């Protein structure tokens, strides 16, 4: 018999999951299913961003609701990833745990990092996620313990994002061998032959015959060869593939390719194209970040965290190539042709190009 209140209470809704089977089975039970069922109104929304180390392939891999843990004072939703290829089974050891107290109000949201199943250590590079809950008091009737979702309902594919192979993971700045430009041509010899003056006399005498022009051109060529032969320019230096760069990079994340820095709280970035330089300095009311405070996770009527309490406060440099993790410990290493000058008294760092030093390998 159909439920008469489904229009009002949305009892048949599966979102944010795909499957409409919410049957629960207690962990350790031999029964394949129980009459117990997870109320759909207990879970309102969810979303996951799979990190750069997750190896997660959209369209092939999935995230599913594994189980629900009910205690006398809280409810925990356990989500895990399911990989399509068995060679990536080692990635199944990470999960997302969202714990809510039973008196948590409707629309509350939790953001968590992926944690290791055995050690409990978090790893944001594996992925991050959020869950918005509905009426938890409807789940209070479930018996205490861990309950498996028999159908392993998957999260809607549109609620999953993957950062795998989406941006530069490392930057190696000015730390590779490069060919040096050739030396400047030698100036004309002061003891050049008298024939070297014939080009100028030829150009002044526009009415001269063709024969005199030909002799002038041949004289110019011989003069040029005689003046530059003693100091021919050396050929460009070809980098040795086994070349060991003299500058050792720190044992940390390296950024390869173009680097884009985003200023954070009171950080000022100035680019001088004339001087080929970048200045990183301090300045009041500069940057896109805000001063760090304890975030207030209040939500609006739709369960979304209010923007005015989401504080991007990850240090002077907010992000490097759109990656915020580790930006507060950013270390700039100068290589051949790159000069880094700290200015403590002015609270600045100057990064500029040194054309002379570019060949001091």
UniProtKB/TrEMBL annotation:
Ranges of compositional bias, category Low complexity: 189-228
* Composition-biased stretches (Pro residues): 178-188
Q: Where is this region: Disordered?
A: 177-245
Protein name listed in UniProt: Uncharacterized protein
Q: What species is given as this protein's source?
A: marine sediment metagenome
């Amino acid at each position: 018999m159909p439920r008469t209140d489904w229009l009002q209470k949305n009892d048949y809704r599966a979102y944010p999951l795909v499957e409409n089977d919410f049957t629960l089975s207690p962990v350790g039970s031999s029964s394949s299913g129980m009459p117990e069922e997870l109320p759909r109104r207990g879970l309102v929304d969810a979303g996951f961003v799979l990190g750069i180390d997750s190896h997660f392939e959209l369209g092939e891999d999935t995230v599913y609701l594994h189980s629900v843990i009910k205690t006398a004072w809280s409810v925990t939703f356990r989500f895990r990833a399911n990989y399509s290829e068995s060679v990536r089974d080692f990635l199944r050891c990470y999960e997302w745990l969202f714990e809510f107290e039973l008196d948590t109000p409707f629309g509350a949201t939790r953001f968590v990092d992926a944690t290791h199943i055995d050690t409990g250590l978090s790893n944001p590079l594996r992925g991050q996620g959020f869950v918005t809950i509905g009426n938890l008091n409807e789940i209070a009737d479930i018996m205490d313990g861990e309950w498996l979702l028999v159908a392993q309902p998957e999260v809607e594919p549109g609620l999953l994002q993957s950062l795998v192979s989406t941006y530069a993971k490392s930057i190696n700045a000015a730390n590779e061998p490069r060919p040096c430009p050739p030396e400047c041509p030698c100036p004309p010899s002061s003891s050049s032959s008298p024939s070297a003056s014939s080009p100028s006399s030829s150009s002044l005498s526009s009415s001269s015959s063709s024969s005199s022009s030909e002799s002038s051109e041949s004289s110019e060529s011989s003069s040029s060869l005689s003046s530059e032969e003693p100091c021919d320019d050396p050929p460009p230096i070809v980098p040795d593939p086994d070349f060991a760069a003299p500058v050792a990079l720190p044992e940390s994340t390296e950024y390869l390719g173009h680097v884009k820095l985003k200023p954070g709280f009171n950080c000022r970035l100035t680019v001088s194209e004339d001087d080929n330089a970048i200045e990183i300095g301090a300045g009041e009311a500069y940057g896109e970040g805000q001063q760090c405070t304890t975030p207030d996770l209040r939500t609006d009527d739709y369960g979304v965290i209010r923007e005015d309490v989401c504080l991007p406060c990850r240090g002077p440099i907010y992000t490097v190539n759109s990656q915020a993790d580790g930006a507060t410990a950013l270390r700039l290493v100068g290589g051949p042709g790159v000069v880094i000058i700290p200015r403590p008294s002015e609270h600045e760092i100057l990064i500029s190009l040194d054309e002379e030093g570019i060949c001091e390998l």
